[in-house]
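User: Show me a protein chain along with its predicted structure.
Assistant: Here is one chain, sequence first, then structure tokens.
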Amino acid sequence: MTTSLPDLLPIQPFTRPARGTVTLPGSKSLTNRALLLAALCDQPVTLTGALFSEDTHLMAEALRKLGFTIAADESLHTLRVSDQAAAFPCTSVTAPIDLFVGLAGTAARFLTALCAAAPRGIYRVDGVPQMRKRPMKPLIDALRTLGADIRCPGVEGFFPLEIHARGLRGGPVSIDASESSQLLSALLMVAPGADSPVSITVLGKLRQPFVTMTRRLMDEFGFASGIAQATGAISIGVGPYCSRGTYLIEPDATAASYFLALPLTAGGSLHLPGFLAAGSGLQGDARFVDVLAQVGLALRSRVAVPHSPSLPSEFGARALGIDSSYDRPTPLRGVTQNFSEFSDTFLTLAALTPLLDSPTTITGIAHSRKQETDRVAGMVAELRKLGQNVHEHADQDGLTVTPDLAELRRRSAAAPIEIETYGDHRFAMSFGILGCHDLHGDGRPWLSIRHPACCAKTFPHFFELLETLRKNSLAP
């Protein structure tokens, strides 16, 4: 995915309250899970409302190399998966299939499990240097326990991998998914194809919402053999996934967090059609709405107008939406929040803490140190650059920010402060929203984002959409 963004992007503040409608991209987590499950189905599946981004492109390209046909129509946001019977062509020792996963954690974990469960073939899976540092060992060990032949040519337990596929035999297995729930989700989705039922003992602390998402998605893709869960254990029967023909991807709840928060920095009101509140959809990150409400935003869910042109018609009765608004005289309060079950959104809140009127404490984020970058250390560094008093907790699990708006104004008075993104899309988008605040009251940029094109990972047109909203706010 390419963009025309410069390497250093000054953020133009909103000088008038935000207004308008934000059409969100499809969920990355759901799109890549649905691609994998569609590949495991018995008939073609069309995914509608799908996300087109770097991560989903990597997933689709890898499936094509494995023999699946993936027909993509970006203008219609559809991905059609077919030719499942032709997948995993016969290969020899001299002709392995190379798969590249970039920095896409979902693609990395899901494709590793898929290749290990394949009936035949040799597959070499690798990513960018940072991907070689991300947790893989628990999944590798679990797949080996089930009979997979997985070799680590570099460092044991990390990418690159070489997989000599021969299927999975099933049986008991344990996995520690405390570093990433994707490790367990990958194992769950391929388990129905094993030779016998799989019984998974789950070790360590787990981010349950993403596992719940995976299990519900397996049900929606027609897996009927059953999943039973007792304390610390999950049993998965053997059986096929059955195509339902089409599957609609929900709008991305994490992407929604930025635009839900925009009125906090710019004032005004925005409508996000298709947003499914926590409990209505599959995404745990929708819980961020509750955090913003504690901060001081007014948020109201509503049913979208039927057949709204901004939504696929398939949404029907599920076509909820949400309005986010902020009346400037209302104080913006600091909060204390455990983000362990929706941690991708902690950066959205942390980046906005300079505008709050009291300290904010964020916990439950230790595992985010092993994502695209060390997100906790990076956030601490950037907030301190903005003149904020940041305490990094000794247990490595959180931080407390005491805002200092006067110091922020002082540091940005002469020139915009440059925010480092560490190649992480969530840094770019979170601080991009902060930069929309008219800090000096004269409309001049006071914050710049380094390497904003990293947003291509999940939201390629984020900054273009932000600029469109700013210009719309100026219209009479």
